[in-house]
Every structure is written in structure tokens, then in C-alpha cells.
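Chain X:
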Amino acid sequence: MATPRFKRVLLKLSGEALMGEAGYGIDPAVLDDLAVQIRTAREAGVEIAIVVGGGNIFRGVAGSAKGMDRAQADYMGMLATVMNALAIQDHLEKAGVFTRVMSAIEMQSVAEPYIRRRAIRHLEKGRVVIFAAGTGNPYFTTDTTAALRALEIGADCIMKATKVDGVYDLDPAKHPEAVRFNELTYMDVIRKELKVMDTTAISLAMDNGLPIIVFNINTDGNIVRALAGEKVGTIVRGGK
């Protein structure tokens, strides 16, 4: 790997990105590829934290839409993120990467409680830290968690891994004529109502000058390329 562009990054993984070609659950092949890329980045000296969603198992918003109490549904979604975090930890450890899972909801049998200074210390020691259970509060998405945790640990950027190769003006799965953006400002995202991250997450990033790189996790080597400074996906940052 070339000299990394960033020293410390927050990798945001959607639960859906872990499904691969399946319609539900976790595709081990996706996790194997993820583990190899993260190991390569760690060997180059990049400090990596991960926030993972739970949409491949349960989405709180979907549960709420079907009549479930929103707070209850969100807590169920948080538990789904813990399952994903443990799966990621297992594959990383098997690849020789030291990890820690830190949960915003205490469950000491499987994860450490989230403590900011402890998380930073783990990163300094070369461990990959996986943040689970969102913020621990209902009504906050894992996108917002990613922006919050990235700022708390002093990350240089958020790398948002998705199933598409960047940000488009329309849903490329439904509109073949959709146009991909190479670069956007935070205000572009808000004004155009682009589905990058939720508005709270974008506002947090904007207020603190935290860049966001959106890229396709299913393209081999994309994480390493983005860390090396290659133009991958779409970058969202200040400007204009």
C-alpha cells in the first residue's frame, strides 16, 4: 500500500453492505474481503475505527412503520448492530487484526462499554475499534453515530462504504441515467436532499470540517485505494 493519506479514519459500514448478493444476513465473503483490506491498511499504519449499521438484520424505522413503538424498534436495531460488530470482529481476528468491540449499550459479556479515552487508547495501540449499538439512544441513526464517534476520536475523515460507487443525483438502481458526483459540499447534500447520510450527521460533519468519502465496498481494494489518496467514489467536504 502507498503512503496513506489519512492517519486515523472512521469506516461506516451499512448493515446492507454486509449482505453481499444475499437479501438478508451476513455474507462471509464480504467480511473476508473487508478483513484483508483493513489488515493492509493497519500494516501501513492507519488507525481504523468502525461503526456498523444493522439493516441487514433489523431496521428500527421499518419496525416503526409497521406499528411498533419507535423507541422499542430502535433498541432492537441497536442490538442488530452488536451482532454485526461481533461478526466483523471474528473475521478481523482470524485475519490477524487485533480488535475491540465497544457498545453504547452495556453488555459486558461480549463488548466493552464505550469510553472515549479508552477507544482512543485502543487505536493508539494499533487495535481496530468497532463501535456497536449506535449512540445508545433511540431516534439517532448509525450515520449520526459515525459522525459523532469520528469527531470524538479525532478521525481525519469518515469513509462511508455502501453498495454503490458514490453519490448520485437519482437512485442508480431505478434510474440508469443517474449522474454520479465526484465531489460535493455539505450544503449541496442538504439542498439537493441527496441520500449520503442523514441531515444530523451531515450537519455535524459540516460544523467541524470533517470530510466524508462515499464508495462501493464491493469493489475489490476500494478501502485501500481511498486511504492511499486515489479518487474513489464521491467526497463531501466544505467549499463553494
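Chain Y:
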Amino acid sequence: MRIRAILSYLCVASLAGGLAFATPPAQIRVQVNLVNLFATVRDKHKAIVTGLKQDDFQVYEDGQLQEITNFSAESNLPITLGILIDTSGSEYYMLSGEKEAGSRFLGRVLRKGDLAMIMTFDTDVDLLADFTDDRGMLDRAINRAQINAPSGGMIAQGPLPSSGSGGTNFYDAVYLAAHDKLSSEAGRKAIVVLTDAEDTGSKLQLGDAIEAAQRTDTVVHILLVAADGGDQSVARRLTDDTGGRMIIVRSERNLEQAFDQISEELRSQYTIGYTPTNKKHDGSYRKIRVEMKNKDYSVLTRRGYYAPTN
């Protein structure tokens, strides 16, 4: 049975992405809005930079410098990961390679404490495996992915309503993965999508998918698998706005290399936390900019979050 989005909809995403509660030590418990960022740093040669300290980073919210109060270079923080596979007709010639590379990727990236789920999307969105650390279950789910062939027996929410005219429900799939599945998970959260990023059937818009990821503090990475390059503008907007990467894939060899890059980034992130100087709980979108004191370095992180409303 397939995932059903209550599209009437989307008006409740009450989670303020990236906000958590912090407890000052040796004090009465108070609620403090802590914005958490996961950042990857590369040098001018595109190599991952490790060993940085808190003072190497500067964080701005809506142009105002913020004080970093939490910092960690821990690379073993648990990850909750969603693998989304485009099973529309445009992926026919690459699906076999995607499944093989996807299984190997999970073998490399998943460690004790990590969870992953598998979803496919075409004219419907299917959950093939719910969050689990069982590699055998995940591998079997990936192997069940078929071009335009919805699978059954997953969770009780039912199918996402078909558009009636077919198509590829890419935006719906990202929204469902973030809003319906990852919203209740804690810690580092990421979605890796294998697709040409060409949506032809979703009920939702690209902005809805981006907002769902931002509100649930989910980073979206896209492996753009398309002979003609796919819709790079869509893929780049979705990844840029959530702190992820878009990697163009034109062959199975490229696919392996792309998965290696994503695996490296997921295991080489800095955790940066700050309490915003803007204390308003107005639900507004706040823009974030992270700068490196060493200008030879570039940082990849999300571009903003939604303030709480209460």
C-alpha cells in the first residue's frame, strides 16, 4: 500500500525546521530556541576540510552576526537517511545501475545507530522499506524497484492520489519523505534522490517540497541521472536551499563516484548551533549565511529556517 499525503492540506507543518530545545547546565530548565546547522567545508581544490574549530566559522541570520554557542566536528553522529529512486520511464536504462550503486552506498555510509528508508516515485509514491538498520531489508527493497510499477504492503497511509494523467511525482515524493517521514526523526537527516528532476505529475509545487525539507531540518542531495542533463535548475534550487549537493550523473561509473562524494560529505560535517538574536516567534523565514574566515574555503549548509510560532 502506498503513502497518502493529506494534501488538503499542507497547512499544518508546525515543526520549525532546525529548532531544538537546549538546557543550560546547572540551571532551571528553560526553553531556548537553538538553530542547528550541519556544514561541510571544502578547499579551493574541492577537497573536504577537517580539523576546523568554532572560530573558523561566522554565522549570520538575516544579515546579523550570531554567536555560535554549540560546535562539534564529530563525524559519527547518527544519520537518518531517505533514498528516493525515480522509477519513471526516463530512468529505464539506468535503474539497474542505480539499484546496485544504491546498495553499495548504504553498505559504506550506514553505521551503528543509523536508519534508512527506501522510496520510489513515478505516477505514485511508494514506500518500499520504512526506517530500519536492517541492511538485508533495505537491499531487498531497492531490488524491488521497477519502472512504473508501484509496490504494495508498506504502511497504512494509502496511495498518493494519482494526477490522472500519469507523470513523475518528484515534488510529492520529496515532500512526503520530509513531512510525513522525517519530521518525527531527530538528529542529522538527509534525502538522496536519484532522478532527472523533471516533475510532470505532482499535486505539490517545488516550493512545497523545499519548505517541507527546511521545516524538518532535512538536507536534500540529488544525483541528477539523465542523458540530456535533466532539469538542473530545479535540482540546484532544491539542493542549494536545503544545504545539499547536486551531482550530474551520465554513466554508471559516474554514479559510483557521486555516491562516494555524498558518503564522504555525510561523514564529514560540522555541527554549528546558535541562539538567534531575533527572539520573535512569528513563523517567518530567516535567511542564514555561513562564512569561513579562511576565504580559500567554501561551506555547504542550508540557507535558512522557519521561526517557531509559539
